[in-house]
């Protein structure tokens, strides 16, 4: 049965490959960075299992590994290796191969889609082929492997050159690949250390609670601001809801819970478009597309986020108190 | 109320503004906030390690890199550009708005992993967009290309965000329902998801209009350049 753990092992194998190649090329900082990360990926399930069993030492070691990564990150200057095929060679290859080049690229979304839709029905000798937890992501990983084989066949290149090209792209992304995981960890620490409760207490201390509109504005802007700080609307929602939404808007002013919840969450989503803390949506794509400014994607989203927020707020205001 | 952990937020803001390495800034903020809240160092390390490995799925995109890298090496982007320049009816705005609609519909069905920056934007949407923009103005420079790629990534994000909230079995709706259930308010997931529809429509309209304005700006600039050259 294919489980999400297998996917993590596959990622670990790729990271260790990158680290070992760096080691052979005597790029010690890069090698250390990818090797530590690879070990964290491969050993992650062991860490979680031990943590659940009440043994904290593996998670403490993992935490120390995270600190090592943070200290190594500034030494990794991101640089795109020069593409060893010239533009003319690539164009020639593009003309020769034509639409065949699109097939492996389209296989990635297509296989993912098929697994997401039908993976639950696939069984072999009475056992399900895919574990139901995280099936779409397992499907995506399978799709990537199939696409790699297909790409090697189309381009008549060995699989190893696929790994080398993958490493070239990973080096161009560099430490930015790590940010989403670290920000998730930061969110957890913020929650545990009561940052959310402190912000909610500050917000309610000056709020004119008698005015429904003032409460609604504070709630919506609080969702945006808190999402900008935490990088995630899911972290903002319980805090703003417990601080303002439930006691003031629903209990005191009679707001409709379904509308308030749904549209309040969407106000938070507008915040996600604005913040470098949502690294997986904003900074990683900028690195992946090799933009010169890491904030290019946020800049492109700024006005969209503002107008969507305004539209959502107006609709919420008109609907929520009826 | 202990307000000291808020200093972690200040570390983030100042660190990003002064452009220190973001990885270092984030870990410093986490350590600072945790210590100020009175966590011991072993507890803090365990918390960091556990939450880091719990979110490993966020690096899944690296698995797309070998296949995409190999295809780009063999000329995928050049092919997408050549193909785009032959499709005459497909303008930049139609390409991006069509992608936005598709992405939003897929997310509405809960299929968010099907497309994304690594899966579809870098290998397909961005090069096709560049080719479509080059049909409007052949003299695009690096700044224009950066802006175009950023618009493509933004379109992908907006399509995903404001589609997934309509899907009943996905995180957001379940989180809202779970919160209310904990506080004694019973709601069906469908009644929550339906109220995401107005914003989904608004987001589609807003982003489509912005894409169209972006295309018009490129067209006007190109027309201005042509008029300047004709003088």
State the separation between the terminal residues of chain A, measured CA to CA: 51 Å
Secondary structure tally, helices of chain A: 14
Strand content of chain A: under 5%
- Number of spatially distinct domains of chain B: 2
The oligomeric state is heterodimer
* Backbone shape of chain B: globular
Shape field of chain A: globular
* Structural class assignment of chain B: mainly alpha
String of helices and strands of chain A: HHHHHEEHHHHHHHHH
Helix content of chain A: over 70%
Cα-atom radius of gyration of chain B: 23 Å
Secondary structure: number of strands of chain B? 0
Task: Kindly report the average pLDDT value of chain B.
Answer: 89
Number of helical runs of chain B?
Answer: 11
Low-confidence stretches of chain B: none
Q: Largest inter-chain interface?
A: A-B, 149 and 117 residues
Topology:
The complex is a heterodimer of chains A (322) and B (231).
Chain A: H1 4-24, H2 28-52, H3 57-72, H4 87-97, H5 102-118, E1 123-124, E2 127-128, H6 135-155, H7 159-173, H8 179-192, H9 195-205, H10 212-230, H11 233-252, H12 257-272, H13 279-288, H14 296-320
Antiparallel strand pairs in A: 1-2
Helix pairs in contact in A: 1-2, 2-3, 5-6, 9-11, 10-11, 10-12, 11-12, 12-14
Chain B: H1 7-17, H2 22-36, H3 41-54, H4 65-73, H5 76-86, H6 92-108, H7 117-136, H8 142-164, H9 171-182, H10 189-194, H11 197-230
Helix pairs in contact in B: 1-2, 5-7, 6-7, 6-8, 6-11, 7-8, 8-11
Structure in words:
- The complex is a heterodimer of chains A (322) and B (231).
- Chain A folds into three domains: 4-75, no CATH class; 87-157, no CATH class; 178-319, no CATH class.
- Chain A has 14 helices and two strands; from the N terminus they run αααααββααααααααα.
- With 322 residues, chain A is mainly α.
- Chain A is globular, with a radius of gyration of 24 Å.
- Chain A has helices at 4-24, 28-52, 57-72, 87-97, 102-118, 135-155, 159-173, 179-192, 195-205, 212-230, 233-252, 257-272, 279-288, 296-320; strands at residues 123-124, 127-128.
- Chain A has a two-stranded antiparallel sheet with strand order 1-2.
- Chain B is mainly alpha-helical and 231 residues long.
- Chain B contains eleven helices and no strands.
- Chain B has helices at 7-17, 22-36, 41-54, 65-73, 76-86, 92-108, 117-136, 142-164, 171-182, 189-194, 197-230.
- Chains A and B meet through helix 1, helix 2, helix 3, helix 4 and helix 5 of A and helix 1, helix 2, helix 3, helix 4 and helix 5 of B.
